[in-house]
Amino acid sequence: MSAGALRRPVRGRIARLGDRSLETLDAVGRFSLLATLCARAALRRRFPWLETARQMEAIGTRSMTIVLITALFTGMVLALQTGIALARFGAKPYVGSVVGLALARELAPVLTALMVGGRVGAGITAEIGSMQVTEQVDAIRSMGADPVQKLVLPRVVAATLVLPLLTALAGVLGVLGGLVIAVTQFRIDSNFYLETIFNAVTVEDFLSGIAKTFVFGWIIAMVGCFSGLGTTGGTEGVGRATTRAVVIASIAVLISDFFLTKALLIL
C-alpha cells in the first residue's frame, strides 16, 4: 500500500475530529446564548408566574413517587452494606452516621437529580421538540411573543426551585429506610440510630447537598429546553433529541457534582 493511501484514512479521521469539535463548540455557544436569553427574560415585566406554578406541579408532584422509592431503597441498601462492613471492626452500631452523611452530602442530591433528569428532562425535550417540529414555536414568534419567556423560563425556574425540595424529602426517606434495616437486620436501637445521625450530620453537610441541587435543576431544565428547541427531523428527531437530552443531563450532573463538591469543601 502506498504512502498516499495510508495518509487518506488519517486525514479522514482528523477531518471528522475537526468537524465534531466545531459542532461541539457551536452547541456550547448556542447553549450559552439560550442561557443568556433566559436570564434576560427573567428580568422583564410580566413574569410567567402561572405557567411556572404549573411546571412546578408537573415537575415536583409527578416526580415524587420515583424519587421517594429510589431514596427509600437506597437508604436500605446503604445501611445493609455499611452495617456488614462496620461489623468487621466492631462499629456496627454507628451505621446511622455513615448513612446520614452519605445521603446528606452526595446520594440524595445526585440520585434525585438523575431520577428527575431522566423523567423531566425527557418530558421537556419531547414537549418542546414536538412544538418545534410542528412549527408551534415559530407561531409563537410570529405572534410577537418570546418563546424563551413562554417555554424555557418557566421550566428552568420550576426545576431549579423544586429539586431542592425533592432532595430534602429524599434524604428523610433514605434515613428512614436505613432505620428499618438497622432495627430489623442489626438490632440497633432506633433512638441510638437517630442520635448518631444528628451527631454526625451538621447543618453545613445538609446545606452543601441542598445547594448543589439548585445547579442540578438548572442544568436539567436548560438541557431539556435546548435539546427541544434544536429538534429537527420530525417524530424521529424528537426521539433522538429526547435520548440525547437524558444522556447529556446525566453526564452534566455527575461532572458538575465533582466541581461543586470541591468548591464547597474549599469554602
Topology:
Layout (H helix, E strand, L loop, with lengths): L2 H40 L6 H12 L3 H24 L7 H39 L2 H7 L4 H38 L5 H11 L2 H27 L4 H33 L1
Descriptive tags:
267 residues; mainly alpha
- Helix percent reads over 70%
Q: What overall geometry do the principal axes of the alpha carbons give?
A: elongated
Strand content: under 5%
Mean pLDDT: 89
Major pleated sheet:
none
Separation of the first and last Cα atoms:
60 Å
Uncertain residue ranges:
none
Radius of gyration: 23 Å
What can you see in these coordinates?
The chain has 267 residues and is mainly α. The chain has one domain (50-266). The protein has helices at residues 3-42, 49-60, 64-87, 95-133, 136-142, 147-184, 190-200, 203-229, 234-266. Helix 3 (64-87) runs antiparallel to helix 4. The protein starts with a helix and ends with a helix.
Give a short summary of the structure.
By secondary structure, this protein is mainly alpha-helical.
